[in-house]
Amino acid sequence: MRRSRNFRRRHLKRIKNKRKKQGNWLYFDQDDNIRHVNCALKTGKICSCVMCGNVRKYFNESTIQEKKAIISEMEQITEAREEESIE
Questions:
Q1: CA–CA separation, 73 vs 87, rounded Å?
Q2: Where are the alpha helices (H) located in the chain, listed in sequence order?
């Protein structure tokens, strides 16, 4: 299903307002505020520094979601092994 131009514009406006509310934009002047909100549209981050950027890029470690997936996979493997040993 194709989305109309109006649909995309409405969602961009909604996301911009959301980013304005959740970001710490108070220390920027009005021009910087608009620029940083536009930068944060897709990623939610205003920059790519060590604190804001990707964990894999700077610290070579997994994200929280990846860590949770690995833990649940290991738990499933141990449960399956326990069931095999019982039978």
A1: 22
A2: 5-22, 30-43, 55-59, 64-86
pTM: 0.45
Find out whether 46 and 39 touch, Cβ atoms under 8 Å.
Answer: yes
The length of the chain in residues reads 87
Domain ranges of the chain: 1-53, 54-87
Q: Encode pLDDT of 34-79 as tens digits.
A: 777 777 777 777 677 777 777 788 888 888 899 999 999 999 999 9
| Tally of CB atoms within 10 A around 16 | 15
Tell which residue, 46, 50, 13, 41, has the closest CA to residue 27. 46
| Token duo for residue 65 | 């979601």
